[in-house]
Amino acid sequence: MMLAPYASDPARSRGREYPMENGLARGERSPYQRDRDRIIHSIAFRRLRYKTQVFIAPDGDHYRVRLTHSLEVAQIARVIARLLGLDEDLTEGLALAHDIGHPPFGHAGEEALDAALHKAGGFDHNANTLRTLMRIDSPYCEHDGLNLTWEMLEGLAKHNGPVTNPNWALSELNAAYDLELGTHASLEAQVAALSDDIAYDNHDIDDGLRAGFLDMDELLAHPFLVANWSAVEQRYPGVARSRQLAELLRSQIGTMVNDLIAESRKRLVGVESVDEVRAAGRALIAFSSEMEEGERAFKRFMYEKLYYHPEQLETARRARAVLAELYAAYSQETVLMEEDWIDTMPRTEPERSRHIADYIAGMTDRYAITCHERIYGRVQEGLRNV
Question: Distance from CA of residue 122 to its chain's centroid?
Fold first, then answer.
């Protein structure tokens, strides 16, 4: 497929932080295909299978986790990239990797590590994605990290827009390999960011209903859903409600994707290069103002009814306590950590505290629960509410 002039051309990649390993070219893959493959084969990506999306350590097989969420984001992002003439491999890699920096227990875990590191610069999951891929997950003999392309790293750093106040982790990485944090990222990164919104806006409906946290009638009467729901009921009268709901979610995703493509095409008129994209001063991949307003209103509804549900808040409190106690235990007795992490423990602060946080951040939900039980001799109750 021919790339649009404003796409990221793999033949013009800015390269990698470290020269290609021994000059080996293992197959006829583009730099972005190679990036995507490195991400998929990484340990950090595999751990997403047991990391929280909405519900902590869910017992049910049908709930999303970070891994399945990332796959759904990648599927949506590839469709949009293809229709806009962007590089699909770069887009897919960004979508697959965007949540790798999340610690166990989702945002509750992030809050716990941020509090633990309050004297050592705090913790941010997006910066930790870069830290994991550039320094921690290191399967190669020649260098630390996965040695991804500049465009992949730039997109992960700036997919939500320019970074004006990077935390310590991103600042250190940017000093070593300048990602031009003050500009907008590529269109591929912008597509991945909004595909994330499209995916979780819709699959969280499914999971919230399955868990019984969302009221069906209240949900389906929301202005953001009501038009598509009415169309589904008219098109499939008498069909089982579960099938109607599945059709609603497909319709919602399609509506949001089509709106994004239409609005983005308007904004891209006259744009002739990826350099113009970065210098545009605004995002060029976007929803229409009507869709953006509706989507924001729906997010507020979901926060009130699902993410801030009393049971969710209580579970999050218990999860924060688990990570806080793990951090305290490892700070006092580093011998409780795995041998590789003990051997590389820094002697000075704040590096020592950050090293401990790196170790905890890499854990899955279930491994964090297991480690906590092993150290404290008790099972933390109430960590699973579905």
Answer: 19
Pick the closest to residue 274 from 182, 190, 194, 197 (CA basis). 190
Closest to 286 in 3D by CA, of 309, 254, 305, 263: 263
As a whole number of Å, the end-to-end CA separation of the chain is 44
For residues 259 and 287, the answer to whether their CB atoms sit within 8 Å is: yes
Question: Per residue in 30-66, pLDDT tens?
Answer: 999 999 999 999 999 999 999 999 998 888 889 999 9
Cα 258 to Cα 81, 196, 357, 360, distances in angstroms: 12, 15, 41, 40
Look up the pTM and report it: 0.96
Closest by CA to 149, choosing from 125, 185, 124, is 185
The Cα 89–Cα 338 span in angstroms is: 35
Place of tokens 């830290």: 131
The token pair at 345 is 């423990």
Place of tokens 């633990």: 116
Q: Which residues of 300-318 are buried (b: 16+ CB within 10 A; e: fewer)?
A: ebbeebbbebeebeebbeb
Q: What is the pLDDT of residues 161-197, one digit of tens each?
A: 999 999 999 999 999 999 999 999 999 999 999 999 9
Query: What is the H or E stretch that residue 97 is in?
Result: helix 88-97
